[in-house]
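Before the break, one more example. Copy the sequence into your notebook; we will annotate it together after we see the structure.
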Amino acid sequence: MKLTRLAGECEKGTCPTVYGVDGTGDLIVQGYVVDSPEALEAIQVPPGEAAVRIPASLIRRLANAHLG
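Here is what the structure looks like once it is written out:
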């Protein structure tokens, strides 16, 4: 699986980042693991899925770079 970095909260290193999966149109989001039982229950994350938290500014950066 080949990934292309689309937007991140920092130039290099490990921080919340959005990647495109080449040839599919899918995205992979790197963020902070949501481990709050209350939050996970509220959004009902099923087996095989995970919830991550990312800054809203990352979505704005992604939209400006690729949709604007």
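Residues 20 and 27 are 5 Å apart (CA to CA). The mean pLDDT is 91. Try to locate both features in your own notes.
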